[in-house]
Amino acid sequence: MSATAPNLNSIDDVQDLLISANYVADRSLATVLYLSLKMGRPLFLEGEAGVGKTEIAKVLANQLNRPLIRLQCYEGLDVSSAVYEWNYARQMIEIRMAEAAHDVDRKALGANIFSEDFLIKRPIMQALENTEVGAPVLLIDELDRTDEPFEAYLLEVLSDFQVTIPEMGTIKAAEPPIVIITSNRTREIHDALKRRCLYHWVDYPSAEREKDIISRKLPNADKRLSDQIVAFVQKLREDPSLFKLPGVAESLDWTNALTELNVVSLDPDVINDTLGVLLKYQDDISKIQGHVAAELISQINAEIGDRSD
Ligand SMILES: Nc1ncnc2c1ncn2[C@@H]1O[C@H](COP(=O)(O)OP(=O)(O)OP(=O)(O)O)[C@@H](O)[C@H]1O
Ligand SMILES: [Mg+2]
Predict the structure, then answer these.
(1) Tens-digit pLDDT profile for residues 108-135
(2) Among 186, 201, 216, where does a domain finish?
């Protein structure tokens, strides 16, 4: 199977594939994803928290029926956790057993303990191995959390889809994995790495798209309530004084929470009591609670009322 599944012959096909997994992508995201699959290039997704970056890789693996291999990045991530390491314990046992059997041919033993049997394959190495269903999807999640030396290491992997192990040689993927890289842009990723990828900024969705996401993900939620929630969240995103804006994840959580509480309409009291589902900083919560929330909801009710007249 090639990296492009047979049915992905157009941008519409990609959009349909995502929609069938309840992922609502705008045209520009579907376009860059289509191109990345067609050209066999990694896709670099940057954007705020909770806008659906990680989900893309999960949906893609699921819908293309490929294994998902996830490399969660963090500060201090190194080759032994991300790529491979030698299984020292097993190597030691092998040496001891050879010694006990008085069978120490140093050259043969050296070749043996540095063979694939003694290698622990970490996500990047696993992603270079093809399965019977084709190359896997490799998700390199939150790359901005790693440090620059690791990023530099990734260059070789992403340019040639190969890893060099000094004791063994170079291991190359027969078919390159489908690579999705995400970043929350807590720092800039180096140009050299970006150049190897197609780039897309995942923005907050429009109100229409956010309503669509909620109705697909939470079909039991009250329609008017979700309209109010989306309008409220969209207004919060226009507030430059907030420290951390709510993402789609928070809209979904809030809709879920309010549905759980049998709320059918937003009012200032409900908002004040549940704002912690939406905003995660006390300064932000205290800014919105009370009269700002009341003002926003009265504007929203006027707008939604206007539309339904
Ligand atoms: N366009 C979308 N269609 C459907 N669901 C979406 C969409 N965008 C976000 N979601 C939902 O929002 C939630 C958060 O998405 P995800 O974890 O992918 O965000 P993220 O961008 O990776 O966030 P973070 O930067 O915090 O890791 C998921 O439950 C996902 O299903
Ligand atoms: Mg994520």
Answers:
(1) 888 899 999 999 999 999 999 877 888 9
(2) 201
Q: pLDDT tens digits for 220-262?
A: 999 999 999 999 999 999 999 999 999 999 999 999 999 999 9
User: Within this chain, do residues 185 and 37 fall inside the same structural domain, yes or no?
Assistant: yes
218 lines ligand 1 (CB under 6 A): no
- The ligand 1 atom at the shortest distance from the C-alpha of residue 18 is 3
Please report the atom of ligand 1 found closest to the CA of residue 205.
1
Please indicate, yes or no, whether residues 95 and 165 belong to a single structural domain of this protein. Answer: no
Q: Is residue 106 part of a domain?
A: yes
User: Is the separation of the CB atoms in 95 and 109 below 8 Å?
Assistant: yes
Residue 129 confidence (pLDDT): 87
Q: What is the whole-number distance in angstroms between the Cα of residue 189 and the centre of ligand 1?
A: 21
Q: Do 39 and 49 share a domain, yes or no?
A: yes
My answer on whether 71 and 130 are in the same domain is yes
